[in-house]
Inverse folding.
């Protein structure tokens, strides 16, 4: 059974290889699959959905992100024309004939037989090894054997072998006998007529900006960590600050952390952080009615449909927007933080105390995938995003014929813009495939 | 009657269970007759829960299921799919909305929310008991799309569709395609020329045999529904046939004695009733503006291709769907708004862009050389609720920064003052703002509470503002030209909106069905929206949305058939006495007369029936019902909800 | 507290009622909704059935001019209301126990206003 499946994959010819199963990859894959094309969707993480599935709610509609994205995720997972490989990375893509790419994939072992796991989590209970949970952005811990998060798809356990003690406790605990330590990394070879790169974005790591104290001061966290605290699959049932588990009541947002900043090599605006911070502020004011939320900004980029109204609504709800660039953050003994900034409204350097600071971290390009293209070069632009060679006429076209780009792989953008860019990539790919035949 | 019903109550992570006592709900419905099992799920929509429901259906041989969770608008199809895959007819599935209509609506009252949830679930069970298996109908669908509007957006939609094998009618109201893009000269973010972009697109359009372009064309009538729409298109006469030579065109235009304001230059110049295409407008064939033409015949002598006898033609087309790409208009400032229409040196950004195109090396307006330019941002955008447009127009901060850079580059000695409300050059556009700052432009910021004041003293114009960036200091500057950075508004399109029934939002742009995940679809099946008619966008965003609309509608029509919702009207011939009431009530001609055993009765034509149910209340003998909404179903739901 | 049955429409007014919930615009919990494709398909006998079973009021959240099934919807719905009013009179019910208003797909606020004032009217009449 196992082997059959493997040879089936090995021999497969796909119309499209989609790399990265965030909302962009899913949307492109679904549109092409609906048109009747065979799609292979490759995701390096153990579960699909990208960043969106981890968000709390979405601006400006305040729809629950999990609720609106899970239908997309399941539709993708179930589509008869889509094959998904998780824990899989692309090693190499070379054009073998004029119109075909030969692709080498590396599938990491899960150490759990995917089709047999029922997601009962007995193994998690048995496992003695505790490590930071990357899907909660290290706010909480998980076991070495774990299911990534409640609404993960596939909702199947995996073993983080680097942290596993090899004690075998999970093997004994598993009622369906699906722990398998003998699994090995597999190399798969497939052929694809076209490729869509939808590898998304990276988050700026604020440890680079020393004056913000991230990594040193416990109560300085990133916006992604706050997203997790506000999400329905949140780790705690409340908003807590890390140093002492106290419910914060004076929260500060520091905008443009790692964006619009030549000193960290990222001169552009990240396009989403003003709005997601505004969203978080609204959610925080809802969850903690007594809390004071101040947002320190340079300019508010509330430009899209319904955004400016959403920003005005946050102000009406009591969010304090302060125009001023943060010069430094210092920590007090009780874990509170002093923000020093020039208050543009008064022109004076001012200090203010907060008990939790959220850094509105920016979006960065994730250009690693360009290295797998051999013989032909997948070019990037000056900011390391995939270069769109015919930007205004055919935005999905890249420097390689037959390779297209979708979503935040090309520029920072929010979810609707990502959906539209992915739709454009689907049209471009389908048109290309039609020309081939 | 269904006898083995499975009921699933969802926590929705906490969205429901925070305000509704799930255990109480389960306990209250467990003993309902015909309920076979009751379970709770953390996320009913998660794949694992879906699998569980599916295997319950198979293993326990459930004959109906009820999921009490969020609004059916989100997950009705998800769970219908679960049922179908497990071998249960999808119409034996009932979704009960205990989130939007209970836990959230009554989050202030946990007891009340729980009580309501219990009754809603009981009503759902009652509906499921009475539910019947329905089969969906397949109808042929035309893989043909009418694209309305041929700006960059419409042309990209058409090209994308054509390349995927869909036949396209590209319908442009104007006599020339290209929309607004050719009006701007150099465009951001890559310095392309707008006119060259539209030229390339036009060439791609005419090269494709499966795109038929109509100019001077307007949709005047529409009937039918997705897969099969019938339309009437009115073609206004161009009064020019064939392809006159450039010289003949020029001569005819010069001969024409009627001058009117030239829209392409936003009224800065005049044109003739005999209209010449501008650079970037296509086809490069002239047209006569019927509303201005006096039929004097002067042009006929100069140009043999003129034919003043042409009349409006109406053609009919059959299409499967529409993509609406009707674009935007620049906001038109009110008389006196920042001195517009009153001071002779106040113009809009679109006018200024035309002025820049028309001036070669020196920037001159009304005979006066321009050196100092004051741009006033957010005109017609970000206004107060009661005043007008509350939205941000998205494109204009970037376009103005670019304009300032281009003006300085082209005309040298220019000083730009930007009176803004916080610059919104999002994403990569930040680099344009940076370029403007680097060349020495001056940025001053105001708030809606204290907008810039414009004053004419002698023959000089001054702009005064309380500048937020310098702690509210009052600053004043002299300006030779004041440019109002006007926002985007949707084009006036009453006839089209009325024909296609596309809902508009508070901002008057066409509204999508779901802002986040379905940005190009509308509530009307088979009518999609793309480009700036949905919301302000730049060219790149317009092109992306247009190609996304192409992908969406191609994926629906490409199979050549559609399956229809089977919630249709059904006649009980035994009770029907053919009074004709139902057929008169039906807006879709879906009821025919037929004879059964010599008795005249009504019959439903299923491919016409839309399932509105308008025919059902008018029947005096209760002989016609809507599937899924029979008396038994609705009344048993009422019984359940009425329980004390 | 009086009990109200609301007939909403799947594409137009039900989304508005959902939106009211999403925005946590609270209204009394004794308001129950049955959603149908179009307000013009509501049968007078259903409304009468509701009164018979103990509902104090019925509210039709009509499509109004937004109806995707065409303009005749408004007139047809008005006819349904007129017929029902006749039947109500026969049974000695007050016409004010049946209310109708057009609720567009984003009319969350108007819906809540209509329903709370209807609720108030009904409870005053009861006392
Ligand atoms: C804190 C925060 C809050 C936000 N809130 C909102 C909001 O409220 N509303 C909104 O509209 N937007 C919001 N956004 C933006 C939103 O997250 C993005 O628009 C969206 O996630 C982009 O989707 P994507 O598919 O392009 O990228 P991603 O979500 O990054 O997905 C890329 C996928 O590719 C995979 N991948 C990467 N490299 C490889 C490889 N080499 N091989 C295989 N797979 C690979 C990744 O694992 C990932 O699954 C927010 C962003 C942040 C950071
Ligand atoms: C001053 C200014 C500067 C700009 N600069 C830039 C820039 O530098 N970079 C950039 O990316 N963007 C820029 N833009 C934005 C750009 O103009 C738009 O993104 C683009 O024009 C949108 O294209 P569209 O196809 O949606 O609409 P439009 O260009 O408006 O085209 C719509 C078409 O639909 C037709 N139409 C309308 N109604 C009907 C109907 N009922 N039936 C048939 N046809 C109909 C119209 O006649 C028109 O041809 C600028 C805008 C302005 C105002
Ligand atoms: S691996 Fe076994 S124990 Fe762990 S979740 Fe899967 S089935 Fe349960
Ligand atoms: S979106 Fe806002 S916070 Fe983010 S980089 Fe741009 S201006 Fe800064
Ligand atoms: S883009 Fe800039 S100028 Fe345009 S409305 Fe928004 S803030 Fe105002
Ligand atoms: S349900 Fe509507 S469309 Fe169908 S027959 Fe009745 S009135 Fe006509």
């Amino acid at each position: 059974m196992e082997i059959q499946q493997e040879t089936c994959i090995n021999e497969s010819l796909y119309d499209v290889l989609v790399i990265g199963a965030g909302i962009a990859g899913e949307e492109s894959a679904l549109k092409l699959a609906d048109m009747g094309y065979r799609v292979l969707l490759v995701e390096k993480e153990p579960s699909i959905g990208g960043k969106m599935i981890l968000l709390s709610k979405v601006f400006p509609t305040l729809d629950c992100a999990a609720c609106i994205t899970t239908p997309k995720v399941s539709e993708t997972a179930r589509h008869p024309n889509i094959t998904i490989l998780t824990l899989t990375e692309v090693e190499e893509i070379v054009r073998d004939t004029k119109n075909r790419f030969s692709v080498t994939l590396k599938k990491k072992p899960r150490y759990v037989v995917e089709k047999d796991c029922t997601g009962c989590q007995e193994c998690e209970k048995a496992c003695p090894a505790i490590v930071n949970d990357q899907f909660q952005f290290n706010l909480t811990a998980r076991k070495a054997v774990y299911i990534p998060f409640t609404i993960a798809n596939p909702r199947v356990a995996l073993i983080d072998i680097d942290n596993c003690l090899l004690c075998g406790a999970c093997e004994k605990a598993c009622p369906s006998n699906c722990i398998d330590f003998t699994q090995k990394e597999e190399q798969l070879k497939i052929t694809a007529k076209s490729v869509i790169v939808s590898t998304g974005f990276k988050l700026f790591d604020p440890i680079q900006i020393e004056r913000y104290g991230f990594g040193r001061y416990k109560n300085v966290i990133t916006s992604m960590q706050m997203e997790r605290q506000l999400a329905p699959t949140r780790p705690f049932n409340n908003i807590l600050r890390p140093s002492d588990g106290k419910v914060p009541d004076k929260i500060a947002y520091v905008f443009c952390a790692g964006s619009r900043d030549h000193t960290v090599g990222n001169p552009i605006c990240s396009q989403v952080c003003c709005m997601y911070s505004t969203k978080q502020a609204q959610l925080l004011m809802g969850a903690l009615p007594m809390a004071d939320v101040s947002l320190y900004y340079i300019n508010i980029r509330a430009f899209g449909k319904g955004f400016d109204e959403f920003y005005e609504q946050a102000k009406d709800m009591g969010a304090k927007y302060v125009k001023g660039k943060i010069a430094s953050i210092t920590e007090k003994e009780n874990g509170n933080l002093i923000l020093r900034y020039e208050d543009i409204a008064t022109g004076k350097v001012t200090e203010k105390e907060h008990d939790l600071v959220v850094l509105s971290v920016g979006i960065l390009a994730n250009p690693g995938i360009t290295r797998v293209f051999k013989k032909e070069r997948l070019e990037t632009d000056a900011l390391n995003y995939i270069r769109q060679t015919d930007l205004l006429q055919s935005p999905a076209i890249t420097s390689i014929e037959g390779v297209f780009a979708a979503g935040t792989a090309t520029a920072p953008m929010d979810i609707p813009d990502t959906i539209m860019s992915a739709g454009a990539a689907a049209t471009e790919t389908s048109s290309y495939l039609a020309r081939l035949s | 009657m269904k006898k083995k019903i499975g009921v699933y109550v969802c926590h929705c992570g906490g969205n429901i269970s925070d305000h509704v006592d799930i255990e109480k709900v389960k306990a209250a419905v467990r003993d309902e007759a015909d309920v076979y099992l009751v379970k709770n799920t953390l996320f009913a929509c998660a794949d694992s829960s879906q699998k569980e429901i599916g295997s319950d259906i198979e293993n326990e041989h459930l004959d109906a299921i009820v999921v009490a969770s969020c609004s059916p608008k989100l997950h009705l199809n998800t769970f219908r799919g679960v049922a179908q895959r497990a071998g249960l007819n999808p119409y034996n599935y009932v979704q009960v909305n205990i989130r939007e209509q209970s836990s959230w609506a009554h989050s202030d009252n946990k007891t009340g929310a729980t009580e309501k949830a219990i009754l809603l679930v009981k009503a759902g069970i009652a509906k499921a008991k009475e539910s019947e298996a329905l089969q969906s109908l397949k109808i042929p669908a035309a893989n043909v799309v009418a694209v309305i509007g041929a700006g960059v957006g419409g042309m990209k939609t058409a090209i994308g569709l054509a390349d995927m094998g869909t036949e396209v009618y590209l319908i442009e109201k104007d006599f020339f395609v290209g929309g607004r893009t050719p009006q701007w000269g150099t465009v951001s973010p890559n310095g392309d020329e707008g006119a060259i972009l539209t030229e390339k697109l036009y060439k791609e359009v005419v090269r494709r045999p499966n795109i038929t372009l109509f100019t001077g064309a307007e949709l005047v009538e529409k009937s039918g529904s997705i897969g099969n729409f019938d339309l009437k298109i009115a073609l206004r006469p161009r009064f020019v046939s064939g392809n006159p030579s450039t010289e003949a065109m020029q001569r005819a235009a010069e001969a024409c004695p009627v001058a009117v304001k030239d829209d392409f230059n936003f009224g800065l110049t005049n044109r003739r009733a005999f209209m010449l295409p501008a650079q970037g407008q296509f086809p490069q064939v002239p047209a006569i503006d019927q509303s201005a033409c006096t039929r004097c015949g002067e042009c006929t002598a100069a140009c043999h291709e003129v034919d003043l006898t042409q009349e409006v033609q109406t053609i009919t087309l059959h299409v499967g769907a529409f993509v609406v790409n009707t674009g935007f208009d620049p906001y038109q400032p009110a008389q006196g708004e920042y001195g517009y229409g009153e001071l002779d040196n106040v113009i809009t950004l679109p006018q200024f862009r035309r002025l820049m195109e028309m001036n070669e090396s020196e920037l001159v307006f009304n005979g006066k050389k321009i050196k100092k330019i004051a741009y006033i941002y957010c005109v017609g955008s970000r206004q107060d609720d009661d005043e007008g447009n509350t939205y941000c127009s998205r494109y204009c901060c970037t376009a103005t920064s670019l304009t300032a850079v281009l003006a300085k580059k082209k005309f040298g000695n220019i000083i730009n003052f930007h009176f803004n409300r916080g610059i919104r050059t999002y994403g990569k556009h930040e680099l344009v703002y940076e370029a403007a700052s680097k060349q020495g432009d001056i940025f001053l910021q105001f708030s809606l509470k204290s907008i810039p004041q414009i004053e004419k003293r002698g023959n000089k114009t001054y702009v005064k503002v309380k500048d937020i960036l310098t702690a509210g200091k009052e600053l004043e500057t002299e300006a030779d030209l004041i440019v109002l950075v006007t926002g985007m508004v949707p084009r006036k399109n009453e006839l089209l909106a009325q024909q296609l029934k596309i809902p508009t939002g508070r901002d008057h742009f066409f509204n999508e069905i779901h802002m986040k995940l379905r940005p190009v679809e509308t509530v009307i099946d088979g009518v999609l929206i793309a480009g700036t008619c949905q919301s302000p966008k730049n060219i790149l965003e317009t092109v992306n949305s247009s190609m996304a609309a192409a992908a969406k509608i191609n994926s629906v029509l490409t199979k050549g058939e559609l399956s229809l919702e089977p919630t249709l009207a059904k006649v009980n011939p035994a009770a029907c006495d053919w009074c004709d009431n139902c057929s008169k009530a039906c807006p879709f001609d879906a009821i025919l007369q037929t004879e059964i055993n010599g008795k005249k009765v009504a019959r439903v034509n299923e491919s016409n029936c839309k399932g509105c149910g308008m025919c059902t209340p008018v029947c005096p003998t209760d002989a016609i019902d809507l599937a899924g909404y029979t008396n038994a179903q609705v009344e048993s739901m009422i019984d359940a909800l009425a329980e004390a | 507290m009086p009990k109200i049955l609301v007939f909403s429409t799947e594409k137009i007014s039900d989304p508005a009622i959902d939106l009211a919930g999403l925005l946590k615009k609270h209204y009394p919990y004794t308001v129950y909704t049955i959603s149908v494709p179009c307000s013009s398909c509501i049968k007078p006998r259903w409304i009468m059935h509701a009164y018979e079973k103990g509902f104090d009021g019925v509210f039709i959240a009509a499509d109004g001019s937004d109806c995707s099934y065409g303009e005749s919807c408004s007139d047809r719905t008005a006819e349904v209301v007129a017929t029902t009013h006749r039947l109500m009179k026969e049974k000695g019910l007050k016409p004010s126990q049946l209310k109708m208003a057009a609720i567009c797909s984003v009319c969350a606020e108007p819906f809540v206003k209509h329903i709370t004032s209807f609720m108030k009217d009904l409870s005053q009449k009861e006392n």
